[in-house]
Amino acid sequence: MVTGVILAGGKSRRMGENKALLRLGNRTIIGHVIQRIQPITDELLLITNSPDEYTHLGIAMHKDIIPNAGALGGIHAGLSYASHETVLCVGCDNPFLVPNLLSYLVSALGKYDAVMPWTDKESSAKNAGAQIILQTLCAVYSKRCLPIIEQMLNESDLRVHALQERANVFALAPEIWKTYDAEGFSFFNVNTPEDFEKAQTMVKHTKK
Predict the structure, then answer these.
(1) 89 by DSSP, 3-state: which?
(2) Which of 8, 17, 37, 138 is most open to solvent, judged by the fewest CB atoms within 10 Å of its CB?
(3) What is the DSSP string of 147-200?
(4) Count of H helices and E strands in the chain?
(5) Beta pairing partners, 2
(6) What is the rounded CA–CA span in Å between residue 119 and residue 133?
(7) All residues at 6 or more sequence positions from 123 whose CB lies less than 8 Å from its CB, including other chains
């Protein structure tokens, strides 16, 4: 049994309007997220501090328990309100989540505290080499993470990726996750007008 948690706590500053509610093809961005995560989950929760904007979705909503704690605070709320031990956390701005990858993340949790895919990002010239980025909002968490996250919040350490330093996290390598999502579409976020423009092109060529 899996609880799906969608985080919609961002301010959408770079977009200038609520990005989750922008129309992308035949549905809103958050509508795409719901469509892709729903078949894999037994319960769906939306973590938002603006519930009035999302009442039309007809899914359970909760506010952050600890305010102003960013994505870590949203994950904390999701884990706290989830009915199931296994919690799949995604962002409200990831319209191209690949269900096969999400299913694999859930199946891989086992005795781990969390399963997070990682991707490469080229560093600047002065820091040569690739930088590993943990995809913390396309990840699966066990409720075992709750006391660890609460301690992090108490210490004002809001870096979600720092959970790897404190918990038993399975960092999923590209050679594994690419067998389920070859292009890494699951990690595409719509943050800026340029991202939205790209998404409008992608939605025409991506499987629904």
Answers:
(1) strand
(2) 17
(3) HHHHHHHHTT---GGGGGGTS-EEEE-HHHHTTT-TT-GGG----SHHHHHHHH
(4) 6, 10
(5) 86
(6) 5
(7) 129, 130, 131
Q: What is the dihedral of CA 96, 99, 101, 103, to 10 degrees?
A: 150
* C-alpha span between 128 and 111 (Å, rounded): 35
Token couple for 68:
């102003």
In which residue are the tokens 């269900």 written?
99
Amino acid at 140: V
What does pTM read for this prediction? 0.91
Q: Kind of pairing, strands 23-24 and 130-134? A: unpaired
Q: Which amino acid is at 92?
A: C
The sign of the CA dihedral 147, 149, 150, 154 is positive
Q: Residue count of the chain, please give it.
A: 208
List pLDDT tens digits, range 58-99: 999 999 999 999 999 999 999 999 999 999 999 999 999 999
